[in-house]
Each structure stands twice: as C-alpha cells, then as structure tokens.
Design goal:
This protein has 423 residues and is mainly alpha-helical. Among the domains are: 139 residues, no CATH class; 116 residues, Response regulator (Rossmann fold, 3-Layer(aba) Sandwich). The chain is built from 14 helices and four strands. It has a four-stranded parallel sheet, sandwiched between helices. Helix 13 links the parallel strand 3 and strand 4. Helix 1 crosses helix 3. Keywords: Coiled coil. Belongs to the UPF0751 family. It comes from Pseudaquabacterium inlustre. It holds the Pfam family DUF2325. InterPro entries: UCP020408 (IPR016772).
Length: 423
C-alpha cells in the first residue's frame, strides 16, 4: 500500500533500490505540486500531484493492463515482477512520456462513461457530492479518475478523495484477506464434498449393479412364468376343444349322467326294499327259524364289525359286490373270484387314488361290501361301517389281502347263510 498524503522519506525514486533500514536519515524531498490548469480543461495524468499516481495506477488500471502497456513501450527491458511494473508506471506518469500518454488514453477509454457523466458538473461542491455518491456504488475506479482529472477538483477535494480511496484500499485489503480465508474454507469444504460425492457415486454404482442383477433375475422369472402361463392356456384350450368335441359327439351326456344318478338312487331304494322284505319274512317265520350257526359265527365278530345280514350263497349271482381297500396287486384276484360266482365286481381303494366322495355312491350301488381292514384308511373304514350299519347291507371284513383270505370270508358268509342240519 502506498502512502497518499506525503511520500515516505525512505521511499526510493524510480530506478533506485529499496532500503528499509537506512544507516542515516535520508534528506527530506521537497513537495512541489504540479501547476493546475486554468479554465474548464480536464487535467492530464502527468498534471496530477505526485502522491496521486500510486492510487490512480493501482486502483484504476488492472495489473494485466499495466503490464501490457509497459511491455509495449519498453519491450524486453520492461520489469518482470508486478511491483516493478507498478513502480515503472508511476515513474513514467510523473512527466509527459509516451508511456504516460498511453496510460492516459487507456484510462480515458476505460472510464469514458464516468467522464461523460461529470461533464455536466461545473462546481466543486457538486463534484464532491457526486464523488460521495459514487463511493457507495461499484464504479469507484472510474469515479476516482473522473474526479481527480476534473477541472473543478481543487486541492481540498483532491486531498479528501485520496483519503477516501486510501481507507477504501484498506477495506478492500481486509475484504480480500477475508475472501481468501473464505476461499480456503470453501476449497476444504469442496474437497470434502468431492470425497463424499465419490463415496456416494461408488455406492450408487454398486446399487445400480445390484438392481441390474435383480432385474435380470426378475426378467428370467417373468419369462419362465410367461412360459408356464402359455402352457396353461394351451392346456386349457386343448381341454376346452376336447370338451367341445365330447359334447358334440355325445349331446346326451348330461341327461345320461342324470339318468345314471337316478338309477343309482332307485337301485339303493330297491335294495332297501328287498332287505326290508327279507327282514319282514324272517320276522314272520319266527325266531326258531334262525340258524344257530349264524349266531355262533357272528358273535365273535360283533365287537369289531357290524353284524352282516345273512346272504344266501346262491343269491351272490347277478349281485353287485364292492371291494373297499386292499393292495392293487390283489384286485385282479378278487375280481376273478367274485366274477367266477356270477357277480359284478367293483373296487374302491379307500381314498388313496380314488376320491372319497365316490365311496358313498359305490356303497349305495353295491349289494355286498368286502372291506379290507388291513389295507384301508380310518376314514374309509368308518364310512363303510356306518353305511352298512345304517342300511343293513351285508359286509365282509377281510384281514388278509389274499385269495385265501377272501375265500375264507366268503366261506363264512356261505356257512352263515346255509340252514342248520337237524339233529
């Protein structure tokens, strides 16, 4: 920062080295003010007071512009450091030199607007008011040049202007230091934010990779589900087509099913009426006609199974015999034994593969039930037992799933149905 009011006694002239610790006091330099022009003509740069060059060069011209002007005038001999350029421009401005004229022209061109504004000002008071107003704005550099070179600027106003710009330069220096400190803080914060941003970008990239992998999995699942859906729709279409063909081939299928259900109901009713008639005949004949062997054979099995109604062995012909349970390999053997007696054979596995709901219909259509107690579920066993007990239908319980077991059970039924030999 240059001293404004008076030059420092130790301040060197242009071209002399700076001595901060002189061995003896330097002689005081006389302060010779430059002559002020008369009339309304603006003052030139070299016509200003000697202590006004430093603020004018330092404030009104950027350092790059000063360097360009000095290098254009002096070429390779121009100073290379910023402070040397500043001192060279000040020294050249104290008298009318080519460099001073170049600086004068550059200042007039740069602040032409401020110069046009001050042309209408004719007295010192108005110029001072305009200067005080300009200090509150942003065009301080242009106002400084226009005020110092104005014809109405007297010594007192020039002193006040230089004092104001001196204090303003201090404020600018403090503000610049604060700005630099703030800039360092912002740079530190910026580095932290960049680090955080890098971390977030890495995390985002990882999440995007995981989402891409998940999306691929979902797309694969979607393709699989679409394939299953197409297969299901194709199967539904095939079944619908087959159903339509079956309905077209057998238009009386629904009435036939209704008739079949009616036939089963009538058959069950007929069996019930036949059984009731048989019971009525036995009751009319009296208890003496009951064979003793029948009561003897059915007594041991009364605790485990319902008492079957004696069915005469010749009556097995043309009857419907239902076999519930048993092993699959024994079913053909049972069928051969039953059909050899002239009966109609039917089989239900007790709910393993056949529907449990079909068991009631099969029981209702049967005249004789053979229950495989060793190869049947508890639910099917109790269904058979409850139905036979409720309807009085003959039921044979076979423990062993074999030909001999079936023949033994049929033999017991035949012995129970045969009349007793008189003694």
């Amino acid at each position: 920062m240059c001293r404004i009011a008076r030059p420092h006694p130790f301040w060197p002239t242009a071209g002399q080295p700076l001595n901060l610790w002189p061995t003896q006091a330097a002689p005081a330099l006389p302060d010779i003010p430059a002559p002020r022009p008369s009339g309304s003509r603006r003052r030139r740069l070299w016509e200003l007071d000697s202590h006004a060059f430093c603020p004018v060069i330092g404030v009104c011209l950027p350092l790059d512009a000063v360097r360009a002007l000095v290098q254009r005038e002096q070429g390779a001999e121009a100073p290379t450091d910023d402070y040397g350029l500043h001192c060279e421009a000040i020294a050249a401005s104290k008298r009318r030199t080519p460099l001073a004229e170049r600086i004068q022209q550059a200042l007039d061109t740069r602040y032409a607007e401020a110069l046009r504004t001050t042309r209408a000002i004719k007295d010192t008071e108005a110029l001072a008011s305009w200067w005080r107003a300009a200090l509150q704005g942003d065009g301080v550099a242009g106002a400084l040049w226009a005020t110092l070179t104005h014809a109405a600027c007297d010594t007192l106003l020039e002193e006040q202007v230089l004092h104001d710009i001196h204090l303003l330069q201090h404020q600018w220096g403090a503000a610049e230091r604060a700005d630099r400190r703030r800039l360092r803080e912002l740079q530190t914060a910026h580095e932290r934010l960049q680090h955080s941003q890098g971390t977030l970008l890495a995390r985002q990239a990882e999440q995007l990779q995981q989402q891409a992998l998940r999306l691929e999995q979902l797309q694969a699942s979607l393709v699989q589900l679409r394939g299953e859906l197409i297969g299901r729709d194709t199967r539904i279409a095939q079944l619908s087509h087959a159903l339509a063909q079956a309905q077209q081939a057998s238009p009386d299928l629904a009435p036939r099913r209704e008739l079949q259900a009616q036939v089963l109901a009538l058959r069950e009713r007929l069996v019930g009426l036949d059984r009731a008639l048989r019971h009525a005949r036995l009751a009319a004949a009296g208890p003496a006609t009951l064979p003793a062997s029948a009561s003897a054979c059915t007594a041991p099995a009364a605790a485990a199974a319902p008492v079957p109604v004696p069915l005469p062995w010749p009556a097995l012909s043309q009857r419907a015999v239902l076999c519930v349970g048993g092993r699959s390999r024994a079913v053909p053997v049972y069928r051969h034994v039953i059909e050899r007696e002239g009966a109609h054979f039917a089989h239900h596995d007790g709910g393993t593969e056949h529907s449990p709901a079909q068991l009631e219909a099969c029981l209702a259509a049967a005249d004789l039930v053979i229950c495989q107690t060793g190869c049947i579920s508890h639910d099917a066993y109790w269904r058979v037992k409850s139905h036979c007990k409720r309807t009085g239908k003959p039921c044979l319980f076979v423990e062993q799933s074999s030909r001999s077991g079936l023949q033994r059970a049929l033999g017991l039924a035949h012995a129970a149905a045969s009349p007793a030999t008189p003694s």
